[in-house]
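To: structure subgroup
Subject: Chain for Friday's discussion

All,

I'm putting the inputs and outputs inline so they're searchable in the archive.
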Amino acid sequence: MKTRRFLLLAAIIGLVLVPVLLSQSLVNAAIQMLIASLFACAFSLLCGQGGMLSFGHAAYFGAGAFATVHAMNAFNGAGLLPTPFLPLVGAAMGLVVGLLAGWFATKRSGVYFAMITLALAELLYALAPHLKGWFGGEAGVSSMRMPAFGLSFGSNTEVYYLTLIWVLVSLGLLYLFTLTPLGRLTLGLRENARRLSFLGYNVHRVSVLVFAISTMFSGIAGSLQALNMEAANYVIFDLQGSAEVLLNSFIGGVTIFLGPVLGAALMTFFGYLVSDLTHSWLLYKGLLFVVVMLFIPRGIAGLVQSVAASGRRRGFTRLAPSMVLYAVASLLVTAGTVYLVELLQRFFSQDYRSLAVLDGKGWPPIALFGLQWDPTSVLTWALPVVALIAGVAVLRQAHSRWMSIVENGESVQAPLAFDGVASKGGQP
C-alpha cells in the first residue's frame, strides 16, 4: 500500500512538473493525454466495472464539448461560469444525455446493448451536420478562452494546469464512487445482474445511474477538449472517437481502475511520437491492440500487477532470467515487425513504383533506417523473417522457463497467456 501511494504521489509530482521540463509542443500532447485518460477512465466505469460495452461513448464526449463552447459564447467566461468552471457545463450535459440514452440502452444487455449505443452515437453523428444552430455545420462552433481569477488562459501552461486539476479531481471522485454501495453494485452488474435482481435491486435503474455517471465524466473530458481547442466540430461524434477510447482502455487494462489511464497516456504519446516517423502508425496501434488481447488480456496494468505480485512472493531474482528472455523476445519481434512493415510500405508506395518506372533499370534500392536495401536481395527479406522466428523461439523458451516454476509447485502467474496456455492460477 505504501509503495502504491509513493508511486501515485511521484506520478502527480511528475505531472505538475511537466510544463517546466517539457517543450510547449509536448505540453500540448500532455493535455491531450490527460483528457484521453479521463475519458478512458469514465468509459471503464461502464465497461470494465459495470460490464456494459459501449460502442458510442464519443457521443457524450462530444455533447460535453459542444455544451462548453456554447457556454463560452453565452457567458463570455465571466459571471456565473468563469473559464475554470466551464467543465461543469460539460458534466451537466453529459449527465442529462446519459440519462436519456442510458434509459433506452440499458433495456437490453450484452451485444444488444452495445449495438444500441452504437446506433445512438451514429444517429447523432448523422444529424449533427444538419442541426447547424447547435453544431455549426461543417465549420463547427468556435469560441475563445477568457481571463478569470487573474489568469489569461492564453498559454498552454495555464490550460495544462486547469486540465490537470479537473482530471485529478474527476479521477478522485471516480475512485470514491467505486467505494460507495452503488459502486459495489456496479461490480455486481458485471458479475451477475440476475442475482442482483433476485436480491431485490432494480437492475435497470442501477444500470441507468452507472451509465449516466460514466457519461457525466465523459462530458467533463469533452469540455476540457473544447477549452483546449477553443472549438468543437461534429466530427467529434465519429466512430473513431469511440474506438479510440475502447482501445486505450483495453490496452491499459479495463478492469483495473488506473489501467485505462495508463493505456490512454501511453497510446496518446505513442501516436504523437510515431505519427511523425511513419505513415503506418495506425497499423502499429492495431497490431498492439491485437497482441494485448491475445497475450495480455488484462492489459498492461494487469501485466505489471502480475509481475509485481510474483516478484513479491518468490523474489525478482528468481524470475529475472525469464523476464530478460521475455524482453529480448519482445525486442526481436518488434524489430522484425517494424522492419517488415516499413519495407513493404515503401515497396508498395506509389512514389517508389513511379521511381522504378522512371529509372528503367529494375527495382532501385529502398532507403530505410539510414541504409539502402536491395529489394531483389534475399537478405533484405530474410532479415525480418529471421528476427521474427528468433523472437518467437526466445518467447517460447521464456514461457517454458516460467511454466517450469509453476510445475514445481510454485504458484506464479504467467505474465503472458502464450499459446492460450494460462498458469495454474488461471486468469482472474
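Points worth raising on Friday:
The longest helix spans residues 316-347.
The two ends are 20 Å apart (CA to CA).

D.
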